[in-house]
Amino acid sequence: MLIxxxxxxxxxxxxxxxxxxxxxxxxxxxxxxxxxATVDHNxxxxxxxxxxxxxxxxxxxxxxxxxxENSVLWLxxxxxxxxxxxxxxxxxxxxxxxxxxxxxSIAFFYFTFNNDxxxxxxxxxxxxxxxLSSQCQDGHTNLTRLHESYKAGMxxxxxxxxxxxxxxxxxxxxYIILDALDESPRIxxxxxxxxxxETMRKWGLSGLHLFVTSRxxxxxxxxxxxxxTQQVRMQNAGIDKDIADFIISRxxxxxxxxxxxxxxxxxxxxxxxxxRGV
Length: 278
Prior knowledge:
Elements: H1 2-19, H2 26-32, H3 37-46, H4 54-57, H5 60-67, E1 71-76, H6 83-98, E2 104-110, H7 121-134, H8 139-149, H9 157-168, E3 173-179, H10 186-202, E4 208-214, H11 218-224, E5 231-233, H12 237-253, H13 264-274
Parallel strand pairs: 1-4, 1-5, 2-3, 3-4
């Protein structure tokens, strides 16, 4: 069991190094100036209790998304309900699913309301482009070609999107995971983000799998326009278990809370019932 866990750990480390894009030249990385999504991923992972999100990656909705053609899955929940933590669980699950299969790619992006460089469609596309390029044998060549066409500045979003489409088609399966669509400012940027996702879905690429998280906002709901089988709400028994497990862990580990240990079961019951997220 321990050996198996160690192997999985090393696979995840190797694949995260791949996504960090160090094999793309420094000149190209500096020119593209793509936000580093692994920073946000590591922050989300640090907040996670062991086992968090197991209910999600074992759900019928997630398992269908993983294998169905041109699939989309929307995880929706209240602000502060732990969507980013669950997004990190999804990323790790897909990384394990990929293993060392070079025909499968993964790219992710975390929108962040407190970081201007992680709020708009150009930032998202540049991050996804860089990550996918690092997983493609001729990815450096593709970026070089793009660079030669736009040395004086940044390519417009439609051009970035077209290059993303070409990259995605180089793989049997490409998993694109986007966290917190609602943290893209609604007036300034979000419409462009949603339009871009709609365009990607209309490509009809069988190997493209989109996973997104957000609050249940009207503009996002209307744009995605997904059936219930492609939506997961963060109000269910799985979430309650995540909360209860976290509370029990904190009561046992935090010396300031140990005095409440005799009331552990009662606290767990009350907090789990009253909470709306992880």
